[in-house]
Amino acid sequence: MRKLKIDELNRLSISDFKEQEKVPIIVVLENIRSLNNVGTIFRTCDAYKVEAIYLVGITGKPPHREIQKSALGATESVTWKYFDDTQKAIEELKQNGYFVCAVEQAEGSVSITEIHEQEFNRLALIFGNEVSGVEQGTINVCDVCVELPQYGTKHSLNVAVCAGITIWESFKLLSR
Amino acid sequence: MRKLKIDELNRLSISDFKEQEKVPIIVVLENIRSLNNVGTIFRTCDAYKVEAIYLVGITGKPPHREIQKSALGATESVTWKYFDDTQKAIEELKQNGYFVCAVEQAEGSVSITEIHEQEFNRLALIFGNEVSGVEQGTINVCDVCVELPQYGTKHSLNVAVCAGITIWESFKLLSR
Questions:
Q1: Is the residue at A115 inside a domain?
Q2: How many domains does chain B have?
Q3: Quick check: B109 contacting A, CB < 8 Å?
Q4: Domain presence at residue A160
Q5: Does residue A144 form part of some domain?
Q6: Residue B4 falls inside a structural domain
Q7: What is the CATH number of the domain that holds A116?
Q8: Is residue B61 within 8 angstroms of chain A, CB to CB?
Q9: DSSP letter for each residue of B84-131
């Protein structure tokens, strides 16, 4: 099995990426502290044709050297927008017909493996701060809480890993 | 939907984790440069009851302050072992009946969505260096190459995100 060279990966140009049809997912990053996590999530959103990233509150914005180090250019391909407040972002998402999910461990949260039982055509996924998670005030106005089942001693995946798995599962669901 | 408190998450103690049955997956980290990535992958392996992590070559080993910052204690729960050379790790894995997968974009690689079509009871997943990927010499002795489909401009997920999605998919397959 010969490892593929970089020019054999069928990578899209930035302009082809901009023009291609996206998967109707918007990722909302609420008060993400680590610029490394922000950049890493940009790269995942590039890979899975996410429509846009909404950066909220203290979450860092491009252009930023520390975001660029992990985004590796994905800040140029993926559309993003800044909001000072999550409530305003959710208001816009609901007006545009998005089903709004907080990704958080909460009472009555739905497992990511059961998300297909919810009804939606467009999905917004909200990820919260590395320490405090999605704010309770944000959860209160979401349509649902979705969580990744976890079986270990921590119950706390890194937020970029949690976003990776959640975006991947949502991509599979919505790109059918 | 009330956010759960930390004592409501049913987190296992380290000793209960050690005693619980694991999912027959061993994660091999070949020449991973970033200690942050190593620690993040420890945390994912804790969440999905991975049997062990094999750290190979230049990959950092616990105890290390930089690994601890992202592992948040998962180096205490997840079993790990160091090898200076991937060939030795693979030899041991094959002797113990593991089906050995390089996670890499290669000619004839199988999508993670089709991995269930392979036959195995125990799975080893090899992740390579952030820049150069899994070594060709390693790929040559693996049973299969598995890859995550990607649709953007980069075709290069962060290794901890790639490991997260691959471990999650393998967990779902082998914990049934």
A1: yes
A2: 1
A3: yes
A4: no
A5: yes
A6: no
A7: 3.40.1280.10
A8: no
A9: S-HHHHHHHHHHTT-EEEEES-BTTPEEGGGGGGS--SSEEEEE-BTT
CB contact (8 A) between residue A1 and residue B151: no
Q: Does B22 touch chain A (CB under 8 A)?
A: no
3-class DSSP assignment, residue A85: coil
Using pLDDT thresholds of 50, 70 and 90, give the confidence band for residue B50: very high
Q: Does B110 touch chain A (CB under 8 A)?
A: no
Q: Which residue has the higher pLDDT, A111 or B6?
A: A111
Residues B89-125: tens digit of each pLDDT: 999 999 999 999 999 999 999 999 998 888 899 999 9
Nearest to B80 by CA among B50, B100, B118: B50
Query: For A3, which of B36, B73, B104 is closest by C-beta distance?
Result: B104
Range of the domain at A38: 22-149
The H or E element that residue B19 is part of is helix B14-19
Contacts of A40 in chain B (CB under 8 A): 158, 160-161
